Backbone:
């Protein structure tokens, strides 16, 4: 059955490719261009199965009681954190007021939530380890310095851990005095001084922008596997060598995933809304974007009920 389907898909891909090949490129309309692209993508998927990861667990043992494991885990996603008095864009959904953030953390602390590391989450996804029923994963995208200024002290107070996905090219060696109205990024120095709370992972070295690609479509530069390969090498050369990745704008595709896997990335996050469960594909994990309006209590309840 599987073989038959594969042959049909292959034949379809081949005929589309042949048709596209026959047509002069300049005459390709948008639809034909897209059809050709989709055919190429399918052909790549069929001819490039993901290599076995060989992942055998990180050996993490979070304090979950035997038999009681979280049915699903919410991975909360934050970006820019600033006190409301400095928030000039209250409608911008990627800016969370520091006051709201503090409330979220206080709530997690009062309810006894456990903040898992990404290693622990990886073990959980693969079924190597349980996680406490009340577990949450905290993530911050883009590497803003205000995460260090406003989120770090709150999380440190509660003994929480979090992951920050930094854009390598934006990371300076050091930062001058912090300007709450500026758009500055966490420095190497700060990465070291906040390592008791934050772990740092990849949001690409320098592909956090959108650009015109196939068929005139404007998509994330990091969704272009050809750009991704040299970018990964630059990130590693910059010393940010981690197996964990967050897709800029949440955009990805099989070729990008294949490239990441080839370069040793084992787990990656989208911005698709939802919880993480054991058995999920580790390269397409869901997250929950937190805004000023997010009802964190409801999000947590949703995770607890997700397994029933
Ligand atoms: Zn981002």
Residues:
């Amino acid at each position: 059955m599987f073989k038959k389907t594969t042959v049909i898909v292959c034949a379809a891909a081949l005929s589309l490719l042949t048709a596209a090949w026959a047509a002069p490129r300049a005459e390709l309309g948008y639809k034909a261009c897209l059809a050709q692209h989709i055919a190429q993508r399918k052909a790549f998927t069929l001819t490039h199965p993901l290599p076995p990861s060989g992942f055998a667990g990180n050996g993490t043992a979070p304090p979950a009681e035997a038999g009681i494991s979280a049915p699903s885990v919410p991975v909360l996603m934050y970006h820019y954190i600033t006190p409301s008095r400095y928030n000039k864009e209250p409608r911008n959904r990627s800016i969370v007021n520091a006051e709201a953030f503090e409330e979220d953390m206080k709530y997690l602390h009062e309810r006894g939530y456990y903040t898992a590391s990404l290693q622990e989450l990886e073990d959980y996804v693969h079924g190597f380890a349980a996680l406490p029923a009340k577990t949450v994963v905290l993530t911050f995208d883009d590497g803003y310095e205000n995460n260090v200024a406003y989120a770090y002290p709150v999380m440190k107070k509660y003994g929480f851990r979090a992951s920050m996905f930094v854009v390598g090219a934006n990371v300076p060696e050091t930062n001058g005095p912090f300007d709450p109205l500026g758009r500055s990024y966490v420095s190497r120095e700060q990465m070291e001084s906040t390592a008791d709370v934050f772990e740092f992972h990849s949001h690409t070295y320098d592909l956090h922008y959108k650009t015109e690609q196939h068929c005139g479509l404007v998509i994330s530069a990091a969704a272009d596997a050809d750009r991704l390969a040299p970018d990964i090498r630059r990130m590693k050369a910059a010393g940010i060598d981690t197996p964990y990745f967050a897709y800029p704008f949440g955009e990805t595709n099989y070729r990008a995933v294949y490239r990441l896997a080839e370069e040793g990335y084992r787990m990656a996050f989208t911005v698709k809304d939802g919880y993480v469960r054991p058995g999920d594909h580790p390269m397409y994990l869901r997250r929950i974007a937190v805004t000023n309006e997010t009802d964190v209590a409801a999000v947590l309840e949703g995770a607890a009920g997700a397994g029933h």
